[in-house]
Amino acid sequence: MYKLIIVAIFFCSSLYSQGESSSNIFSLEGLRITGGFAYSNVGGDYIKDQLDDIDGLKFKYVPGLSFGLEKDLPMEIIGGITYTKRGTKVVYKDADFDFKEESTNTASYLTLYIVKSFPVGGFEIFGGGEAGTFWKGKYKYKQSYAGESYSDTETYDREEWQDDLDGKLYDFGLIGGITFPINQQFAIQGSYYFGFLDVFEDEETRSRSFKVVVIYIIG
């Protein structure tokens, strides 16, 4: 965890230093603040098998905040760092027994990304890679049966995520999207993240995430 934070610090330093004026390592040229929402779920063979085997089971997207910094680099490259939430909501219903069960698992990640942008008319498309590390998580559970209900909420840190839940600490995948400028200071961006690494040990469950953010252009 601390290694990634150190890498992030150096990464942010490099973002500030890539302005047109190389003499000013804290140049704000091309620096932007991003903030919005991510809508996440999980995919993979394990999820497909569960859906095929269990009637009444659904995996739904869950919303979460996402915010960060990004910077223009040479050769139409953009680098960024974000704090973003990912997760899934599992819903199971059995109408015959008046039974319903919901569990929502959200995980916060600190991520770094590098993408290549391609201007097309009045907007930009981009694609590249994103790597992240687990920060903290929350688990919500709700059950109802024959008019009775039960709910519980738990939070967990990196150690509990890895040791108790068999969660993996690191993730990597591809990211792509499109950016629409509003004016000289604001833009709207939509993107999709396709994770390559399993979220949990011994289960092929990989992150999938749509993200919509507003971009504020500082320099």
Task: Give the SSE layout.
Layout: H1 2-16, E1 31-43, H2 45-53, E2 57-60, E3 62-73, E4 77-94, E5 99-120, E6 123-145, E7 148-156, H3 158-163, E8 170-181, E9 186-200, E10 203-217
Antiparallel strand pairs: 1-3, 1-10, 2-4, 3-4, 4-5, 5-6, 6-7, 6-8, 8-9, 9-10
Provide a concise account of the structure shown.
The protein has 219 residues and is mainly beta.
Question: How would you characterize the overall build of this protein?
Answer:
- The protein has 219 residues and is mainly β.
- The protein contains three helices and ten strands, in the order αβαββββββαβββ.
- The chain has helices spanning 2-16, 45-53, 158-163, and strands at residues 31-43, 57-60, 62-73, 77-94, 99-120, 123-145, 148-156, 170-181, 186-200, 203-217.
- Strands 1-3-4-5-6-8-9-10 form an eight-stranded antiparallel barrel.
- Strand 4 (77-94) and strand 5 (99-120) form a beta hairpin.
- The longest helix is centred in the N-terminal third of the chain and has 15 residues, at 2-16.
- The chain is elongated.
- The two termini are 31 Å apart.
- Residues 4-10 and 15-25 have low confidence and may be disordered.
Indicate the multimeric state: single chain
Order of helices and strands: HEHEEEEEEHEEE
Q: What fraction of the residues are assigned to beta strands by DSSP?
A: over 45%
For the biggest sheet, the summary is:
8 strands, antiparallel, barrel
Q: Any key phrases for this structure?
A:
219 residues; mainly beta; eight-stranded antiparallel barrel; 3 helices; 10 strands; 14% helix; 65% strand
